[in-house]
Amino acid sequence: MKVVLINGSPRKNGCTFTALSEVAKQLEKQGIETEIFQIGVKPIAGCLGCRQCPKLGKCIQDDIVNQFVEKYASADGFVFGSPVYYAAISGQLKCFMDRLFFSAGSKLAYKPAAAVVSCRRGGASCAFDDINKYFGINCMPIVSSQYWNQVHGNAPEEVVQDLEGMQTMRTLADNMAWLLKCIENGKKAGINKPTREPAVKTNYIR
Fold first, then answer.
1. Using CA atoms, how far apart are residues 46 and 206, in angstroms rounded to an integer?
2. What percent helix, strand, coil does the chain show, rounded to 5?
3. pLDDT, tens digit, for every residue of 175-204?
4. Which residues are registered as beta bridge partners of 3?
5. pTM
6. Which residue, 171, 177, 193, 30, is CA-closest to 109?
7. 47 CB contacts (<8 Å, ≥6 apart)?
8. What is the Cα–Cα distance from 84 to 86, expressed in whole angstroms?
9. Of residues 196, 80, 68, the one with CA closest to residue 131
């Protein structure tokens, strides 16, 4: 089993990375393979709303989003991490997730996912909620912890001093590992993911 952790911060080894690394280390202790995917510092374009991805099977903008899907769609679970910018997630992660879920959401459905946010002081709960909305609209089990999945600090060395935050990351990893193992054993017992009804779209203005 494998969990991919997406670092939505432009700082490769910053606070968000520190939090995700703690999750990854604990997952490895539980026998789960991990990999941290760094979005990087290059600009990521937002969704164009062109609705071509259902026809193409990928986003029409052939960049890091399609590269991620091609390499990681087969992963068993995901953790999306972001720094808090103005009480929201980073612009890079926002564009990345908009296009990822619009073009390849079906490949992620029914796979456990979690949000992790890093902030200096405030705005964590808003950013945390922003990420979780993607999972909630895509039939993805949301993995929780003993507190909201957040760490505090203005530098990596400060984040590791947030003892409760770091413990929250480890509990998150344990819960993710537990759920993945439950799903794996369920498959072996013949329990398959739900069969969905055809989608019904109801517009409010007719």
1. 29
2. 45, 15, 40
3. 999 999 999 999 999 999 999 999 898 888
4. 34, 77
5. 0.96
6. 193
7. 95, 98, 99, 102
8. 6
9. 80
